[in-house]
């Protein structure tokens, strides 16, 4: 383990509690007091003050999941401001997105409903406490489909048109720790936008390296090492309520709550599933490693093998009643 990271023992137990003091603001998205479960994070945790290329690199090369507390204010302060509820809806309320209770619904050919941001926000604001799976905007090609969602350069980096784009806060890592614009512009994009209420989320899946910044809100992650990873094709909340309690020993996921402003790194091929525990808005970005980048840069026909989409087409659940 890197010296500056620790296996968090931030809070024991499973009690419901108020938003932790050190979590970022909810940006006005939360409806009333937020019942954030405080539970021990089972992956390594680092504070934003300790985060940098030198401290991050060993996690990428060692394929170790990492949670970085409070990074958004440091790397994307404008986004934190602009993606608060009021300015976001004012500026982007007319943009239309597909919504579904299942992530990757388009790829899985599952039903979706197209709504404007304003319609979606109005709808989720009316939903009271419920155990039903909730709809999610989980847009995996948004740089191309919604170029209006601008203002992301501080987070994603400039230089579009170049083969590799490296977010400014990753500069100093080996050159491969960026993403490729081809991935961000074809149907299997590497840059994803998400917005969803408590009860929405992404069901188990895997792909190559990815980082995920919760600009506002919080979500609970379930993470499995590559030897235990798998796909499912049902709403994340249903999966979490019905399948996860039956998992034990090495089949049980590592869990961790990502709060407002936290960045979570998932290494390649690690399975993961999320459940938002309050309305959450953010960005997830897949990125490359040096073993595949040279091939990916070799000519216009070269195709990434590590876009932030499932490495194989999602197949039927492989572990019993998932
Ligand atoms: O943010 C989420 O809900 C899911 C994101 C995800 O699956 C990913 O980053 O790969």
Task: Walk me through the structure.
By secondary structure, this protein is of the alpha+beta class. The protein has one domain: Jelly Rolls, CATH 2.60.120.650. 20% of the residues lie in helices and 22% in strands. It contains eleven helices and 17 strands. It has helices spanning 53-61, 72-75, 77-82, 85-92, 105-108, 117-126, 142-145, 153-156, 181-185, 236-242, 293-296, and strands at 6-7, 16-17, 36-37, 44-47, 66-69, 96-100, 113-116, 136-139, 164-165, 179-180, 191-196, 210-216, 219-224, 254-258, 263-266, 271-276, 280-286. Strands 1-4-5-15-12-17-11-8-6-7 form a ten-stranded mixed beta sheet, with helices on one face. A three-stranded antiparallel beta sheet has the order 14-13-16, covered by helices on one side. Strand 4 (44-47), helix 1 and strand 5 (66-69) form a beta-alpha-beta unit. It is globular and about 45 Å long.
* CATH homologous superfamily classification: Cupin
Low-confidence stretches: 1-17, 184-189, 291-322
* Shape call: globular
Bound molecules: 2-oxoglutaric acid
Summed up, the domain count is 1
- Characterize the biggest β-sheet: 10 strands, mixed
Number of helices: 11
Task: Please indicate the percent range of residues in DSSP E strands (runs of 2 or more).
Answer: 15-25%
Mean pLDDT: 79
Q: What name does CATH use for the topology?
A: Jelly Rolls
Tell me the number of strands.
17
Query: Radius of gyration over alpha carbons?
Result: 18 Å
The CATH C-level name is Mainly Beta
Order of strands in the sheet with most strands: 1-4-5-15-12-17-11-8-6-7
Order of helices and strands: EEEEHEHHHEHEHEHHEEHEEEHEEEEH
CATH-scheme architecture: Sandwich
Helix content: 10-25%
Which structural class is indicated by helix and strand composition?
alpha+beta
* Terminal Cα span: 32 Å
